[in-house]
Here is the input.
Amino acid sequence: MLTAALMAACCAVTYLCIARFSPYIYTHRLEDAEELARIAYLELPNHNFSETELKYDTDLFNEALKDQFEDEFVFYILPSDSAELRSFDGVDTTTRYHFCFADSSVEYTVFVAKNTEKESQIVEALQKAIPVLSIVILAVSIVAAFFYTAYMTTPIKRISKISRQMASLDFSGRSEIQRTDEIGILSDSLNELSRKLSAALSQLQSANKQLQADIDKERELERQRIDFFSAASHELKTPITIIKGQLQGMLLGIGRYKDHQTYLAESLEVTNTLEQMVQELLTVSKLETPGYVCTKSRFDFTQLAEDRISAFDDLFAGKELTLEKSLLPKAYLIGDAQLLQKAVDNLIHNAIVYSPVQNKIAVRLWTEQDRVCFSVENTGVHIPDEAIPKLFEAFYRVDASRNRRTGGSGLGLYIVKTILDLHGAGIEIINTLQGVLVKVSF
Here is the structure.
């Protein structure tokens, strides 16, 4: 509606400008009236001045002009010093003649000028065409406004729809406007903005997921640290309490504690257990130090396994365990030999401790595709399936009573898992038909 009104107003202004500035059409030249102006100049000085006489003379000469030139010219008699005369400066007139009436000394000027009130033929034609022009202008304005508005607003509606989708973080829409004007440039810019925002949002979501994963991991690590120190405090408190009770009983000579030799030996055994636990805690602290990097070198893992198996000969013999071993002649690895020795010791020691008397322990070392595999299997015992996933947690023991005679501190497998993680190795524990198998793959 605004566009139609604007176009109609422009047409109306155009019409008015044509009507206002159309040239007047004259059939006679102004020079043709020069003779009449000169006659008036010669006759008027013989007349006496009066308003009535002045008007009469003016009308008389205008009648003469009208008879001869229709309404194209006008006769003027004006005082030479009047403002009305000065208004004709720059206007096309005949020669201006100056005279005085017979009975007056006031100077007057007489001349003939074009009649500016005479309408041109163009204006007359336009006035006759006003009704038709009004209808045409209105119809053309409405039709042109409709198509112009549709041409301008349809792509803007599409762009607006895409922008609303973008406001809802939906960057899948694309503006398919193929134009080279400002709207086309806006469409291309919107598509580019949508593409970049989509990429930025994807990166942000990915970073957010990673950050959330890091936060969850950090929370889990914090929980594990709290659980670790809580369990460590409990584990250290128990042997200390035992030693303290035994020493107090011996000092006070209470009941059975009078047998110092027996309870000093027991206190020493508890102290040894406490020392072993402290050593394990120090190992854990060392391995979990931020930025800790183990010193790796190339060594023969077969020789390491042979040496560690030999170190436990007394324990094998003490529980009358049968040892079966199948080791590669040579198996070279890149790693920290001291740490891996501790891991092998813990695995073999666990197999011995948890095996019933007169059972069998099998140690194997072999290659499997591009990996070196090491396993320890002890027979005559099984682990509850629900307990297997928890075996690598710090201070976890299958025996809920946490009896020292049925298990260690619960740090052995935790240390093994930490060492193997430093070497990029995998470990799994499974129940077999004969017993429990621990398999490590490098």
Remarks:
- The first helix runs from residue 2 to 21.
- The first strand starts at residue 73 and ends at 79.
